[in-house]
Amino acid sequence: MPNKNESLKQARDERSLKKRRAVEQAIAELHENNEAITFKSVSTVAGVSRQYLYNNFKEAISSERDESRHAIQTIDGVKVPKRTTEEHRHLEAVLRNKIDRLNDDLKKTRRELATTKQALEKARGESEHWRQTWVKSRSTG
Predict the structure, then answer these.
(1) Disulfide check for 48: which of 4, 29, 52, 108 has CB 3.0–4.6 Å away?
(2) CB of 36 within 8 A of CB of 71?
(3) Are 61 and 53 in contact (CB under 8 A)?
(4) What is d(CA 92, CA 94) in angstroms, rounded to the nearest whole number?
């Protein structure tokens, strides 16, 4: 009959092997999908904690991450750096904020344009008044 400690060690080794294979598959999958490799992306795909990755795969993921940071991909004929999904969310938020600021600026500019048009119409009216007054004075004089 196997020793209890041996069976626990065997179960632990099996779990460790499953985790290791999951991490290796996750890295391969990220490579295959041409996605940036980070501790967070690997932990999400593999279903393991980041601490596990730092403890067991720090060198491998760090080197992959450094390589992917310098990697460039082509989107619609334009070369851009690879991004992680978190960076995409951040960029989306930045762009949405910029769009909101530009919309606010556009509203402000339209209000200023309307005010300027009103002032121009008023000036044209005054100018026409003074022109008519001048014409009358020339014709009577």
Answers:
(1) 52
(2) yes
(3) yes
(4) 5
CB atoms within 10 A of CB 30: 21
Same-domain check for residues 73 and 89: no
Three-state DSSP class for residue 94: helix
**Beta bridge pairs of residue 80:** 73
Same domain, 45 and 93: no
Q: Where a domain ends, among 37, 66, 83?
A: 83
- C-alpha 78/C-alpha 106 separation (Å) is 29
Q: Residue 115: CA atoms inside 13 Å, Cβ hemisphere, count?
A: 6
The most confident of 4-18, 32-46, 89-103, 124-138, by mean pLDDT: 124-138
Q: Helix 39-46 to helix 58-69 angle, to the nearest 10 degrees?
A: 120
Q: Quick check: 20 and 61 in contact, CB under 8 A?
A: no
CB 73: neighbour CB atoms within 10 A? 13
| pLDDT band, very low/low/confident/very high, at 83 (cuts 50, 70, 90) | low
Question: Domain range holding 2?
Answer: 1-83
Same domain, 58 and 92: no
**Considering only CA atoms, which of 15, 14, 18, 10 is closest in space to residue 2?**
10
